[in-house]
């Protein structure tokens, strides 16, 4: 059983658990308040289009000002262990003293009988035929990687994907990201579907200020997969995976809400469709996780368990 954002009907879940290896004491006001403080007061005015912008990193001169801009010199050859990220980070990636703490918000939605997306408790017991979607939100600009393992098997990179978002994975602060996307042309591609195959799917969310060394993105990823379809989805090198595993041990502060059953709002759908930031009065994520101010990455896990 392999997790993929392109193929559905594969994930079987009995309970869903957010796992943090070394959780820090919870501080509701600090965690949730610190995460939401950078949300804009109001949504951006309508531009007349409903097409969501791409996920490629902004290029110099396009009017944006992303932190730690990358250049062609920064690109890492695809999947070479010597560029795995175990070596000291370049001086250009040192986190500024006053950098905002990296935060990641997650909300789990389940499809009801009318096709609506309802907020659901991660501890809900799912059945065959249930369909779910994950809404992610970050509090700063950065790069999102999603890895998957099945029953503690080898890791697979499921996002970025050479066939999705032009192989980009750059997220802007508070602009929602759905997996799978509700904007997909086919209904079957808009949800993870639960089937009868037993197993445990582990999702690893890596949110980082700079691209991960040793993992190709954008044109590099497209070219890498085009050369040989058998190499994709990518299996990260041992060195790259060791970096992810090490970062998992870093403590995160968390805050979880207990408000479930409400439908995804029109505001959330509009923000996702247009690629604009969620506003102060939009619903908050069900789960908020914040990393230490000294960390350039945040790694969180989500376990999809079927018995």
Uncertain regions: pLDDT < 50 for 5+ in a row? Answer: 1-28, 64-93
Largest sheet: 7 strands, antiparallel
**How much is the average pLDDT?**
79
Structural class: alpha+beta
Helix content: 10-25%
Number of helices: 4
Q: Distance N terminus to C terminus?
A: 14 Å
User: What is the radius of gyration?
Assistant: 18 Å
User: So what's the overall shape?
Assistant: globular
Could you give the count of β-strands?
13
Key terms:
single chain, 307 residues, alpha+beta, seven-stranded antiparallel beta sheet, six-stranded antiparallel beta sheet, 24% strand, globular, disordered N terminus
What does the model show?
- Helices cover 13% and strands 24% of the residues.
- By secondary structure, the chain is an alpha+beta fold.
- β2 and β3 (117-119) form a beta hairpin.
- It is globular.
- The two termini are 14 Å apart.
- The model is unreliable at 1-28 and 64-93 (pLDDT under 50).
Summarize the structure.
The chain has 307 residues and is α+β, with helices and mostly antiparallel strands.
Helix-strand blueprint:
Elements: E1 15-19, H1 28-36, E2 103-111, E3 117-119, E4 131-138, E5 142-150, E6 156-159, E7 170-171, E8 177-179, E9 192-193, E10 199-208, H2 218-227, H3 238-248, E11 253-256, H4 266-274, E12 287-290, E13 297-306
Antiparallel strand pairs: 1-13, 2-3, 2-4, 2-12, 4-8, 4-9, 5-6, 5-7, 5-10, 10-13, 11-12
